[in-house]
Each structure stands twice: as C-alpha cells, then as structure tokens.
Design brief:
Organism: Stutzerimonas stutzeri
Largest sheet: 5 strands, parallel
Protein name: 3-isopropylmalate dehydratase large subunit
Distance between the termini: 60 Å
CATH class of the largest domain: Alpha Beta
CATH architecture of the largest domain: 2-Layer Sandwich
Structural class: alpha/beta
Radius of gyration: 22 Å
InterPro entries: 3-IsopropMal_deHydase_lsu, Acnase/IPM_dHydase_lsu_aba_1/3, Acoase/IPM_deHydtase_lsu_aba, Aconitase_4Fe-4S_BS, Aconitase_4Fe-4S_dom, IPM_dehydratase_rel_enz, IPMI_cat
Strand order of the largest sheet: 5-4-3-6-7
Number of strands: 19
Function: Catalyzes the isomerization between 2-isopropylmalate and 3-isopropylmalate, via the formation of 2-isopropylmaleate.
Helix content: 25-40%
Number of helices: 16
GO molecular function: 3-isopropylmalate dehydratase activity; 4 iron, 4 sulfur cluster binding; isomerase activity; metal ion binding
Length: 473
C-alpha cells in the first residue's frame, strides 16, 4: 500500500526527472516560467554566449513590470536610461528567442504575478519557477511556484529543468471567522509575526482549514505571496471549486473536453488523509485585529490597537538589538500608540494587493471621504486589465474624487525602481510585502497593512483602525 503523501510531495514526485543523490536533490521538470526585464538579462546573455536556444519558448511568458513608469498617461519611453536599456534589451531577447512579451503598451501588461493568473497561464498541478521570490503567489491556484536566481533562469530556459532540493513540509491550519475589516493580509501578517521572518526557512507551506476555504482566490494569492516573508520557498493550497470557477473563463485555460479532463485531474490535488508534515501550526484568527508593521522586517508587526514595543522588554539579545535598530530607522519611540503615527504617503499596489478585490476593498473605505491634506496617496493597479475593470466599475472615480492619484500598472513604489520613490524621512502606509530599510527609497519608512487599512490611513493622515471608519459611516 502506498504511503499517504502531502500535496507538496505529489507536485515534486510528478515532476521529478531523476534523483541526483540521497540528500534530496532531484532534476525537476518545470511547466511554466514568467520572465521580467529586471532579473532576466544576464540569463539571456549566458544563452547567447553558449550559443544555446530556449528549449520551450511557449512555456515562458515575458512581462515588463519592474522599471516602467506608472504615470497616469501611459508612455512607452523609459525616462531612466538604465531602465530604457533593460526594456529594449528584454524586447530584443524575447524576439530573438521566440518568447511572447507583454510590453509596456500591451493591454495585458501588468505585474507578472497578477498577469499570469488572470491570463490562465498558471494552472493547478503545475510547477512554476521565475526570477522573483513572490512566485509563491501561484500556490493559491494549486500550483507550486518558487523564485530562482539568474543562473538558474538560464539553465531553465535552456533545458526546462532545474536542480532542486526537496523541502520540508509545514501545514498551517487556519480557523476562525474573520471579523469586520479583516482580510487575508492580516492573516499572513499574523502568521509571520508568530513564527518570525525565518520561521519557515527550508519549508514549503500548505495552508488549509475552514478560513482558507472561505477566502476568495485573490485573497488566497495574498497569503501565498507573502509566505516567502516567513522564509518559505513555496506555499500553496489545495485547489477547489472556487479555483476552477476563477480559471474557467481565462484566455489560456483549457476548453471543452480538455477542461473536463483537467478538472478531473485537479480534484486529485490534495494531501492524503494521514499524510505527515514536518511541522504543524494552528492559527486561530477569530479574534484577530487589523495588523500593521512598526519595524523594518515583516515580522515586526502588531495589531493597530497596540503600542510600539520597548526593546528593553525583549529577553533575546539579538531580537532586542534588531528592535532598537528598527525603531531608530523608523523614528519611533517605545510605548507610542501605533494609531498616533502620522504618515506622509499612502500606496495601494504591488503583486501582493493590487487586484480588483483589493481595489474594491479600498474604495469602500474611501467613498465619500478625502485624502488628508498632508498625504500623497497613490493607487497603482496590478495590471492594465485590472485598471480597466476598476474604471468600468467606477472605482477609479472614487479614488480620484478622494484625492488619490490613479496610475498605470507596474511594480511601482513596492521596490522603487522607477520614478515612484519616497524621499528620506517619508512615512508610507503601504499594501506591499516588504518594509526593509530603503525598500521604497533611501531613508524612507514603510508600514505594511491591507489595502483597506492603507485607505483608512490616507483619509485619516495617520495609521488608523479601518473598523473605526466603518463605524462612522
């Protein structure tokens, strides 16, 4: 009788070409990869130098998203010379190697981890790799995605395989009904706070439980996206009827008899009863409050009703030192109420939280209100299609009437690689995934939170419990 297997084991077993040693290294077949203009140039240069071709060009989708400007009027010209070289070189490489490219002016353009799912390019059961750590996002569809380095991108393009080491498995069982104003962003931030920024290092996380099942597919993407901030190399969820419904009308999804055959196979993608995990975590979110970060690591987070922690109360010397450094950088004092912290900027965007559901959440908070006079607020949709849908639904008008900038799609201020950059001392309420020192600009200070919480901060001018605004409405 076969041993019960986890969903992770099923993915890896079905894609293993051969075992390489007794340490867990395998040659792994990769179904799909997504390339961007920032992490791929050296890989293409390596292929040219070795006179190699791309093995399966149709297995790669290329997207311009990192360095393009997001100004309200879409332009093809990159104002930054370095960015212009990256984009032009990327286009040349895609043409020469036969890879489909969604360039800046393409109506399908957007952030890779938003675009690939909305195109149906990622399907349950697939193993996906890309030169971006947040490739874990695709786990929400029942695929297994992980980020790779430039040398690995070259190897993948040339062979459609990677040398891969099996991970340990962690199951996170999430239960409890989310209260008013709570989102999947709060769930994943609570998990990261609990286990730490390295708590899942060496693991693939499977999220399960009634709370996960109740979430939409887009909300699940947020959780899988940010699992990497706990150190996970992969994160996913068993596909269900919501996933099949999400994929059914996507341009690249199977059709007709092929669709029926695919769904029948996808229904087998779950962890077998009795499958053993290397670690199990139970997370009760029934009493969870909206979360915000106060420090410079995603695990330095707290409920909005809490205060800035006192490093002297931290018994661990390393964490005490990390807290002291974070508070110096963030310009905060121990004991300060998080809800008293004023902001200068509010940013809604990124591959974590820039899908249509995220914009709807934020617009509900913003409707009928105005951005605080001292705050610059921006909305950067995750894709051109999301932008068009938001305009059709009237969301763009709500944001514009409130005083938000309504911009074009791209990574934007998530990592400040274009002209969307904060200045030293600026403090931003952000729906992004990382709050490292300098992440949004040298000397800039970032507080992570859900899009609805960003919207609340934008209209209040400070970090604010979004539930208090709901009560005022």
């Amino acid at each position: 009788m076969n041993r019960p297997r986890t969903l992770y084991e099923k993915h890896i077993d079905s894609h293993t070409v051969c075992n390489l040693d007794d340490q867990g290294h395998v040659l792994l077949y990769i179904d799909r990869q997504v390339a961007n203009e920032y992490t791929s140039p050296q890989a293409f240069s390596g292929l040219r130098h070795a006179n190699r071709k791309v093995w399966r060009p149709a297995a790669t989708l290329a997207v311009v998203d990192h360095v393009n400007p997001t100004s309200p009027d879409r332009i093809a010209t990159m104002p930054d010379p370095g960015g212009a070289r990256q984009v032009s070189s990327f286009g040349e490489n895609c043409r020469d190697f036969g890879i489909e490219l969604f360039d800046v002016l393409d109506k399908r353009q957007g952030i890779e981890h938003v675009v690939a799912p909305e195109q149906g390019f990622i399907l349950p059961g697939m193993v996906v790799a890309a030169g971006d750590s947040h490739t874990t996002t695709y786990g929400a569809l029942g695929a297994f995605g992980f980020g790779i380095g430039t040398s690995e991108i070259e190897h993948l393009l040339a062979t459609q395989t990677l040398v891969y080491k099996r991970l340990k498995t962690m199951r996170v069982h999430v239960r409890g009904e989310l209260g008013n104003g709570l989102t999947s962003k709060d769930i994943i931030m609570a998990l990261i706070r609990r286990i730490g920024a390295s708590g899942a290092t060496g693991y693939a996380i499977e999220f399960a439980g009634p709370t996960i099942e109740a979430l939409s597919v887009e909300a699940r993407m947020t959780i899988c996206n940010m699992a990497v901030e706990a150190g996970a190399r992969g994160a996913f969820m068993a596909p269900d009827e919501k996933v099949y419904a999400y994929l059914a009308d996507k341009p690249r999804a199977p059709e007709g008899a092929l669709w029926e055959q695919a769904v029948a196979r996808w229904r087998e993608l779950y962890s077998d009863p009795g499958a053993e995990f290397d670690a199990d975590i139970d997370l009760d979110v029934g009493t969870l409050e909206p979360m915000v970060t106060w420090g410079t690591s995603p695990d330095q987070a707290a409920a909005i009703s809490d205060r800035v922690p006192d490093p002297l109360n931290e018994p661990d010397a390393v964490r005490r030192q990390d807290t002291q450094r974070a508070l110096r950088y963030m310009g905060l004092e121990p004991g300060e109420c998080l809800s008293d912290i004023e902001i200068s900027h509010a940013f809604i965007g990124s591959c974590t939280n820039a899908r249509i559901e995220d914009l709807r959440d934020a617009a509900r908070v913003v409707r009928g209100r105005k951005v605080a006079a001292h705050v610059r607020a921006m909305v950067v949709p995750g894709s051109t299609q999301v932008r068009a849908q938001a305009e059709a639904e009237g969301l763009a008008k709500i944001f514009l009437d409130a005083g938000f900038e309504w911009r074009q799609s791209g990574c934007s201020m998530c990592l400040a690689m274009n002209d969307d950059v904060l200045s030293p001392g600026d403090r931003c309420a952000s729906s992004t995934n990382r709050n490292f020192e300098g992440r949004q600009g040298a000397g800039a200070r970032t507080h992570l939170m859900s899009p609805a919480m960003v919207a609340a901060a934008a209209v209040s001018g400070r970090l604010t419990d979004v539930r208090s605004l709901s009560e005022e409405a």
